[in-house]
Design a protein that fits this description.
By secondary structure, the chain is of the alpha/beta class. The chain has 21 helices and 30 strands. Bound molecules: ligand 6R9.
């Protein structure tokens, strides 16, 4: 346990006084949320408009074999009406979305709530005309353009279930998701400009759709107007249709437990799983956490730099902020284009008040030097946030000093695709922060620390173990699309009666929480979740590869890098050219984010006598930590370890 005194940063009086939630209020609200969850969430659910009021608040069972999670289950509402229509009277002309394009030379757009309404209705009508109805699945494979938000909200409006596939994913990954969710249509764009380059999204979609059912249609937004191949029986031109489409479309009444979206995410085994979020509970939780964690006030300009392809983009670019009637900024590009001052230029240009990004971006920008920050006027900033992976104190301090000038509380928000919204974070007006700590549970969240092997609950402070959650919250995922059994197996079987997060954590002497990272075979590369099993199965799909084992290793910028041990088919010989071929192969199977950092040729892999690969050992070798190899006596062929050490690749 760490006994090193950590510097703490209490909220200033000014921040605490102005905040929605100060320390006293947090304590009272947290206590109420735990002692009377039904009463607490009944009241919180009033922040959204219900078409049919609910009478039941919570119906939850975490017992393995009979897991069910229902919130507000007999109520009806529409997410798009909550994010748009109900604001029209009071803030129709207020900007809902500020869109900042990839190139600073192109003009930013300010989309009012009224314009958002009209655009969303047009998209909804176009989808309906294409035969999309309630419960149908729609894949969204889009750049960070306003149409991505229109598409999400249009699906919500007509009750279709969207599944966003990050535009950096390959055609194969896209095809797997189209097939996995049995989608009726793919919404895409001609090209996705990013960092001065343009990904040919439509061409990728064409490749993906070649291996999907012929009935799947493709709706294409013209982003650059560049040339694309066209299939008249399948492709539909959104940009042409939107000019004529009606801008009125009545929102569908959805049951609170109807699915709102599916989002595929990596797990420790097998192929990515389709995390299912539903309508009522998700929206209540996204809206409440957005307001309280970021201390969002009317008139603020809020910017989350995530991509809508990740859960952070769902909850904290689109649904949470818009449900709160906020002004949310959407950025198409990357932090380093045209140069490393771009984030800060945008903060200055749009007078951003709350800024939310990932540690990997902070580390990358920190490496470019502070001059890029110092040249910009960041006086509008009130709060900084981070998400996606543990933040190292060095990056935290740089964020605090250089970006926040010591005046902006940093909310280190720990949560997951599965949780829908923040589960642990300091609240800016209530809690002191510590560099690298997620600090406190959000309202309604009951974290428990368990002994990893016995599953015994560890009480008291200054303890470490695996992190589980003892009771449900409205934003929790409900199931894995098409595989409820895998859902129960993944999250409820290892530690009975609890939701298992897959993360380790420490509760320090003050009772504050620190996330220590994944305890399963999921690695976190630049804040993107990657199952080592996924990369392995991509590698072994290559005809020259016999076997592969993949582990994470510490990486200065990405947090973790991807280290692959590869055994070749007999007769194949290792070469740098083959290394490049395999790297490109993985990129095309999954996407550039899965690109291996290191490929080490492994004549053999360390296995137990029952044939299980001993990843613990491979991880240690990749980390350059041979002293800690631990017990190798159960290995079938201990000598393979010596070979791997001798031929270890330097990064
Ligand atoms: C929102 C999101 C979830 C995993 C999670 C954990 C890691 C996220 C973190 C963090 C430490 C934080 N993680 N936020 N670790 N501190 N503030 O990132 O969802 O892509 O599903 O990843 O990311 O390991 O389990 P997702």
């Amino acid at each position: 346990m760490s006994n090193v005194a950590t510097q703490t940063y209490p909220p200033s009086d000014k921040t605490a006084d102005a905040a929605h939630v100060n320390a006293v209020k947090y304590d009272a609200m947290y206590d109420a949320s735990i002692s009377d969850p039904e009463g607490f969430w009944k009241e919180q659910a009033q922040r959204v408009d219900w078409m049919t009021p609910f009478t039941k608040v919570k119906d939850v069972d975490f017992t393995f074999g009979q897991v069910k999670i229902n919130w507000f289950a007999d109520g009806a509402l529409n997410v798009s009406a909550n994010c748009i229509d109900r604001h029209l009277e009071t803030r129709g002309d207020q900007t809902a979305i500020i869109w900042e394009p990839d190139s600073p030379k192109e003009e930013a757009q300010h989309i009012s709530y009224r314009a958002l309404h009209s655009q969303t209705c047009k998209m909804a009508n176009i989808l309906r005309d294409m035969g999309v109805g309630k419960g149908d699945r729609v894949i969204i494979y889009m750049p960070m353009i306003p149409e991505a938000a229109y598409a999400m909200l249009a699906c919500a409006r007509i009750g279709a279930i969207h599944s966003i596939v990050f535009a950096g994913f390959s055609p194969d990954a896209l095809a797997a998701r189209v097939q996995g969710s049995d989608a009726k249509i793919v919404i895409t764009a001609d090209f996705a400009p990013r960092g001065g380059k343009a990904t040919p999204l439509k061409a990728n979609a064409d490749k993906a759709l070649a291996s999907c059912d012929a009935s799947v249609k493709c709706l294409v937004v013209r982003r650059t107007g560049g040339d694309v191949a066209w299939n008249d029986t399948r492709d539909v031109d959104y940009t042409a249709l939107a000019k004529e489409a009606s801008d009125s479309c009545a929102p569908e009444a959805m049951n609170a437990e109807d699915p709102l979206f599916i989002l595929y995410t990596s797990g420790s085994t097998g192929q990515p799983k389709g995390v299912v979020h539903t309508t009522g509970g998700y929206l209540v939780y996204a809206a409440l956490t957005h307001e309280v964690t970021f201390d969002y006030h009317d008139g603020d300009v809020y910017w989350c730099t995530a991509d809508v392809g990740w859960v952070t983009g769902h909850s904290y670019i689109v649904y949470g902020p818009l449900a709160n009637g906020a002004t949310t900024l959407m950025f198409e590009g990357v932090p380093t284009y045209p140069d490393a001052s771009r984030f800060w230029q945008i903060c200055e240009k749009h007078k951003v008040n709350q800024f939310y990004t990932a540690p990997t971006a902070i580390r990358a920008l920190m490496g470019k030097g502070r001059a890029f920050v110092d040249g910009c006027d960041l006086s509008s900033l009130k709060l900084l946030g981070t998400v996606g992976e543990p933040i190292n104190p060095e990056a935290w301090n740089w964020y605090n000093d250089v970006v926040g000038k010591g005046n902006c509380p940093i909310v280190d928000t720990w949560w997951q695709t599965e949780t829908g919204g923040h589960l642990m974070t300091p609240l800016p007006g209530a809690h002191a922060t510590k560099p690298g700590a997620a600090m406190k549970p959000f309202f309604g969240i009951r974290p428990v620390v368990l002994e990893p092997t016995s599953g015994a609950k560890i009480d008291g402070n200054d303890v470490e173990g695996v992190l589980c959650i003892a009771d449900s919250w409205p934003g929790q995922m409900r199931t894995i699309w098409g595989d409820h059994e895998r859902f129960e197996q993944t999250y409820f079987s290892d530690y009975k009666g609890y939701y298992f997060t897959g993360d380790g954590c420490r509760r320090d002497a003050d009772g504050d929480y620190w996330i220590t990272g994944r305890v399963d075979d999921v690695i976190n590369v630049s804040g993107h979740r990657m199952g080592t099993a996924e990369v392995e199965s991509a590698l072994v799909a290559h005809p020259k590869v016999a076997e592969a084992a993949v582990v994470g290793f510490p990486h200065d910028i990405k947090g973790q890098g991807i280290y692959c041990y590869v055994s070749l088919m007999s007769g194949e010989s290792p070469s740098d050219a083959l290394r490049t071929e395999l790297r490109n192969w993985v990129r095309s199977e999954i996407g550039p984010i899965a690109s291996p950092d290191v490929i080490q040729w492994a004549p053999g892999l360390p296995k137990t006598r029952s044939g299980k690969i001993m990843r613990r050992i491979l991880r240690k070798i990749a980390e350059n930590d041979y002293g800690a190899l631990g017990d190798t006596s159960t290995l079938a062929e201990p000598e393979v370890v010596d070979d791997l050490i001798a031929n270890r690749m330097d990064r």
